[in-house]
Amino acid sequence: MRIKEQKYLLPDGREVIIKSAGPEDAMKIKLHREATANETHFMAREPEDGQLCLERITEILGSIAESDRDFMVNAYIGDELVGDLGVTLIRPHVKYLHRAYLGMSIRQMYTGMGLGSFMMQIALDQAKANGFEQVELGVYSDNDRARHMYRKMGFKEYGMNPRAFKLKDGTYRDEIIMANIFAG
User: Fold this and answer.
1) Is the pLDDT at 85 greater than 90, yes or no?
2) How many CB atoms lie within 10 A of CB 7?
3) Which CATH number fits domain 6-181: 3.40.630.30, 3.30.300.30, 3.40.50.720, 3.40.50.1370?
4) Which residues is 131 bridged to in the sheet?
5) Quick one: which of 75, 88, 92 has its CA closest to 6?
6) Residue pLDDT, tens place only, 42-80
7) pLDDT tens, position by position, 122-134
8) Exposure string (b/e) for 70-82, b if CB count within 10 Å is 16 or more?
9) Residue 115 pLDDT > 70
10) Could you report the per-residue pLDDT of 87-104, keeping only the tens digit for each?
11) Which CDD domains match (predicted)?
């Protein structure tokens, strides 16, 4: 699904354009996700996992763009992709149709500027409009900044997957399971 383009001003006055992602954005998303994997351990991928498959990303973006409920938005400063956020149906079975999963990434140099909260509000509003009753996500237990923002946006912690992530140094991180259950 495609959503209405929106603008966000960073504290330094630069304009960020938030717009729907489509197959035409596949290369930028590929490069963005590979870059964010290099910046922090909070992403699911490590650089050693190899390059992402451009054809697969293009296919997924085409499917999302044609979906009645799933969507993905990108944040651009000029032509530079600085953030992405996707909301997708957890499973296409009757018992799951009320639930969506959310994933997001923002380049480190643009965190702490309100962009994540702005993108999250767009996502939650659109998820509600699309008929989802709750949005779920998983976050690293040591990602305090993200956990704070998610709580601010109405997410509650419902569980934990112990040792969900094993880092290159051999240490583990738990995954905190969070959900935003819409009143209704």
Assistant:
1) yes
2) 10
3) 3.40.630.30
4) none
5) 75
6) 998 887 787 789 999 999 999 999 999 999 999 999 999
7) 999 999 999 999 9
8) bbbbbbbbeeebb
9) yes
10) 999 999 999 999 999 999
11) NAT_SF
**Residue in the structure block whose two tokens are 């380049």:** 107
Q: What is the DSSP string of 123-174?
A: HHHHHHHTT-SEEEEEEETT-HHHHHHHHHTT-EEEEEEEEEEE-TTS-EEE
Q: How far apart are CA 20 and CA 33, in angstroms?
A: 17
Domain ranges of the chain: 6-181
Place of tokens 């996700």: 33
Measured between alpha carbons, how far is 40 from 152 in angstroms, rounded to an integer? 22
The one-character DSSP state at 34 is H
